[in-house]
Amino acid sequence: MSNSVSVVNENGVAIVTIDNPPVNALSFHVREPLMQALVDLRDDASVAAIVIACAGRTFVAGADITEFGKPVQQPDLRAVVAMLETVAKPTVAAIHGTALGGGLELALGCHFRVADAGANLGLPEVKLGLLPGGGGTVRLPRLVGAAKALKMIVSGSPIGAAEAHEAGLVDAVFEGDLTTHAVNFAREIARKGGPFTPVRDRDEDLGETDLAAFDAEAADLARKARGLEAPLACAQAVRNAVTLPFDEALAAERALFAKLVASDQSRAQRHLFFAEREAAKLPGKDTPKRRIARVGVIGAGTMGGGIAMAFANGGFPVTLLETSMEALQRGLGMIEKNYAVSVSRGSLTEDAKHQRLAQFKGSTDYADLAECDLIIEAVFEDMGVKKEVFGKLDAVAKPGAILATNTSYLDINEIAGSISRPRDVLGLHFFSPANVMKLLEIVRADKTAPDALATVVDLARRIGKVAVVVGVCHGFVGNRMLAARGSESEALLLEGATPSQIDKAFTDFGWPMGPFQMGDLAGLDIGWRNRKARGLTAVIADTLCEQGRFGQKTGRGFYLYEAGARAGVPDPEVEALIREKAAERGIAPRAIGAQEIIERTLYPLVNEGAKILEEKIAARASDIDVVWVNGYGFPIGKGGPMFWAGLEGAARIVERLDHWHQRTGKDVFMPASLLKRMAETGSWDTEA
């Protein structure tokens, strides 16, 4: 037929094989020959049954999202599936690897679905700000029920073959050669005879749907969506499958899809999809990588323990080093406790917990790190302490071992320059809790060897992290921009805003929490200690810390926390303190609106990002977006700070920064030259 679609007739069972590496996406050059093959086979009397299979490592893993937003070339997926449903002879989708998005929708067009035991099936379009646009919201409920379909589609999370079989999505699960099993399955079904009912006509169970329970679940999902449009549209589309005739529900799905695909939110989420993949690319893709068989972690505290868990979860043996046996046992005990929590929640089996704990080897002797290929220190954030640790590593680490620091701020060039092997040194800035948070800032020092960098970028993927390579500066990308975002926080308080007003401006924008809520959660003493080390002050926050108000862990910070409560309430004592400090400085309080809060916090955030691009600390504006969405909670529906700047209007941001610079004289408001150029050209390209 074509390079992308081939057909073999195996004694009356036609095997249609899609071959479009790497993930068999349903591009136009696949859909066109697939449509023709199915039409030919439908009318071929020598064919008793049809099996749709895929070459390579996976079934169809989705549509070609590069086609979104462009004129659709016919046949589109909906036309292929609709034609497939006109075939009177049995059709079977043979699913291995993953059947995702358009891939699962193609499979739903078949009468039957069989799967390899290791297959995963799902409709993840919501993660791109979309809903399934090829009939998935209307057909899936007819197989698994409305409640199960709602959960699958709104979460976007795939399910395994066994669960799919139990739910009715898959008709059989096989071990071994799937295509052979699928052909035998199809032949037996054809022998038994029809009629074979398309999924679209299997609506006998939908009438039993408890709509009140469905609506309650949908309302709960809406609350969790935090302003995202796609989850709500997904829920509505599944409800339509229950309440409307098939063709009307299908048309409604298409209308919802068309609205979403044109929205800023979906554009933002698709931007992030490509940005994450771009961030993992390095120049010189053929750079050899070093072998990493064992990982060493120095420090078994919260951060070190989390890092160690991240590698153990990824299948790597870990040597965990502490200064004393007491500290080591405390750290290992916390790791075991964390795994026990996962078991209690059902996200980990007892056997898996024991397998992961078996990956750990505890030690108090640096000599035990000699067998490690990668060693990460996660000790106190102090240059002297870091250099002392690296001096010891220089003496014991084997040649070629990669030596990494988990510093959040410190100069990695200075650390690397303190030992005899600077080419082996780089930064791995994990985010807490390190076993959960996706982001990993990989900091390239001046003398970091290309193969060391390529090795850890690949390693990040293997342990499930979203990696972004950045350069050396104070705070790198994330924390440097965080400082710019927070530079006006206390000024806003002193001028009349309350912590809860500022936090509400952030949560209304789409952040999961505001800066004062976050400070209380993390512990105000962390920032206090960092400021003191740098000779800086923050009049309100420092005073709170001097009073022992460190946030949630002490029950008092910017907010008051009742025993065990995670949500704080405004504290009149804090508001009185703010007014007192303002009066001492002769500042008369005034009303401050949400727009001013955004201008004085998020506009400097964007501005600092522009400076980072100018200095080539980040390679791409999209890399900055990946950092902020995955590490700091920037709303995914806005695509990250640099993408959002385009939506907000760079010219407006420049104008308002100029306004605040003239009013305050503060450098944080001085527009970067690249931001000004962005306002003129619409591009973050530093070479323009």
UniProtKB/TrEMBL annotation:
Keywords in alphabetical order: Fatty acid metabolism, Isomerase, Lipid degradation, Lipid metabolism, Lyase, Multifunctional enzyme, NAD, Oxidoreductase, Peroxisome
Segments forming domain 3-hydroxyacyl-CoA dehydrogenase NAD binding: 295-471
3-hydroxyacyl-CoA dehydrogenase C-terminal domain location: 475-561, 597-683
Pathway listed: Lipid metabolism; fatty acid beta-oxidation
Compartment(s) where it occurs, according to its Swiss-Prot or TrEMBL record: Peroxisome
Listed PROSITE patterns: ENOYL_COA_HYDRATASE
Reaction catalysis annotation: a (3S)-3-hydroxyacyl-CoA + NAD(+) = a 3-oxoacyl-CoA + NADH + H(+)
Pfam families assigned: 3HCDH, 3HCDH_N, ECH_1
UniProt cross-references to InterPro entries, sorted A to Z: 3-OHacyl-CoA_DH_NAD-bd, 3HC_DH_C, 6-PGluconate_DH-like_C_sf, ClpP/crotonase-like_dom_sf, Enoyl-CoA_hyd/isom_CS, Enoyl-CoA_hydra/iso, NAD(P)-bd_dom_sf
Main location: other
Family the UniProt entry places it in: Belongs to the enoyl-CoA hydratase/isomerase family.
Subunit relationships: Monomer.
Protein name: 3-hydroxyacyl-CoA dehydrogenase NAD-binding domain-containing protein
